């Protein structure tokens, strides 16, 4: 927690690109109404946010292929509705912490796409001055606490952030995301116990994308209903269609309200799917192409909203194209910045380290 906070203020101070933010709304300023059905504004907002994540990730994948991004790179494509729906249920001040599949979470928190992309390419305008890479970015300003490469580590850190919220009586809730694989880690259950015992304001969001690297849920988990994982600690939970941004927001509102009102933690199992490999180096031999194709064709979270915008809200193809063009422009600008920004100076080798 202390380390995360230190890194957060450091990286906030660093990137000039991250400071020069586009005028994009963050989700805590997003249009709100009852959650079951979205208004036109909510659908448009969700569409734009999810599309930004998708296009950003596609571009990151291309840049990785071109050798511009080194190290690990885990793409979030397919899972966009989870983080966008959850952010739409938050209020300003609520924190987010997650694992290594984190670019979507950063963008959804309102972090600048230039600063994120420049960190991927290891440039000085990146959120960690080009020294952190894909899995290690933070923004205290946007309440994003990483970016963690150790599977499950963020669960105890997120519980610690929630403890700080309770101690400071600031009314904030910490959204702590982790995967189906991470859900089998021991420290998760130590955290669950303390979170319920002390009624900490934390929502545990389990992103069940059906695989942990190449291992399917049914091969690795004795209890595959992750919403029940808090049962022995009396933590309530529910399973959510994580491909439907409206269902995510509705569940997010219930869970956040529960946590904020002092009732303690809440578990949301988001049933979702990642279209790409675990990381860029995954040949994905453990699942069939048909399975991926079926999910894309029948459950794509962005396509669902796109259809509503056309059928229900009568948006024209031209109006949608204008949104797409704007998103592409933001992503292209980020890629250009991340390609041309200089690398960190060698003197930076000895800064921002624990001595
Ligand atoms: C403590 C630890 N053990 C193993 C690994 C290697 N590892 C990286 S990702 C991963 C799978 C995690 O899967 P899941 O929690 O389902 O998240 P997803 O990748 O599906 O988002 C493993 C085993 C690690 N990084 N840290
Ligand atoms: Mg997984």
Automatic annotation (TrEMBL):
Any GO BP: pyruvate decarboxylation to acetyl-CoA
Start and end residues of each stretch annotated as Disordered: 1-36
Gene that encodes the chain: pdhA
Name of this protein: Pyruvate dehydrogenase E1 component subunit alpha
Cofactor names: thiamine diphosphate
Source species of the chain: Chelatococcus daeguensis
UniProt subunit comment: Heterodimer of an alpha and a beta chain.
Pfam family membership, one: E1_dh
InterPro entries in the record: DH_E1, PDH_E1_Alpha_Subunit, Pyrv_DH_E1_asu_subgrp-y, THDP-binding
GO MF terms held by the record: pyruvate dehydrogenase (acetyl-transferring) activity
Summary of the function given for this chain in its UniProt record: The pyruvate dehydrogenase complex catalyzes the overall conversion of pyruvate to acetyl-CoA and CO(2). It contains multiple copies of three enzymatic components: pyruvate dehydrogenase (E1), dihydrolipoamide acetyltransferase (E2) and lipoamide dehydrogenase (E3).
Positions of the Dehydrogenase E1 component domain: 49-346
EC number: 1.2.4.1
Reaction(s) catalysed by this chain's protein: N(6)-[(R)-lipoyl]-L-lysyl-[protein] + pyruvate + H(+) = N(6)-[(R)-S(8)-acetyldihydrolipoyl]-L-lysyl-[protein] + CO2
Keywords: Oxidoreductase, Pyruvate, Thiamine pyrophosphate
């Amino acid at each position: 927690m202390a380390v995360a906070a230190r890194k957060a203020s450091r990286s906030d101070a660093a990137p000039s690109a991250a400071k020069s933010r586009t005028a994009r709304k963050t989700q805590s300023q997003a249009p709100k109404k009852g959650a079951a059905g979205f208004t036109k504004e909510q659908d448009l907002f969700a569409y734009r946010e999810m599309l930004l994540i998708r296009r950003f990730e596609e571009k990151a994948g291309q840049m990785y292929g071109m050798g511009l991004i080194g190290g690990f790179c885990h793409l979030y494509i397919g899972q966009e509705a989870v983080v966008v729906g959850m952010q739409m249920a938050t209020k300003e001040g609520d924190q987010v912490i997650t694992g290594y599949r984190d670019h979507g979470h950063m963008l959804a928190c309102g972090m600048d796409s230039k600063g994120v992309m420049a960190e991927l390419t290891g440039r000085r305008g990146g959120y960690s001055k080009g020294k952190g890479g894909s899995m290690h970015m933070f923004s205290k300003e946007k309440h994003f606490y990483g970016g963690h490469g150790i599977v499950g580590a963020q669960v105890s850190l997120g519980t610690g952030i929630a403890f700080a919220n309770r101690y400071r009586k600031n009314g904030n809730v910490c959204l702590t995301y982790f995967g189906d694989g991470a859900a089998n880690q021991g420290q998760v259950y130590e955290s669950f116990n303390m979170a319920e015992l002390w009624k900490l304001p934390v929502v545990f969001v389990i992103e069940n994308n059906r695989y942990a690297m190449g291992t399917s849920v049914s091969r690795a988990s004795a209890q595959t209903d992750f919403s029940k994982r808090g049962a022995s600690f009396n933590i309530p939970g529910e399973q959510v269609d994580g491909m439907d941004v409206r269902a995510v927001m509705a569940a997010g509102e219930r869970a956040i309200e529960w946590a904020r009102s002092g009732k303690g933690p809440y578990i949301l199992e988001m049933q979702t799917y990642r279209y790409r490999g675990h990381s860029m180096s995954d040949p994905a031999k453990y699942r069939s192409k048909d399975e991926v194709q079926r999910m894309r064709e029948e459950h794509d979270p962005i396509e669902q909203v796109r259809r509503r915008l056309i059928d229900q809200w009568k948006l024209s193809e031209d109006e949608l194209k204008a949104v797409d063009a704007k998103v592409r422009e933001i992503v292209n600008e980020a890629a250009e910045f991340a390609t041309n920004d200089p690398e960190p100076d060698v003197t930076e080798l000895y800064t921002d380290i624990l001595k």
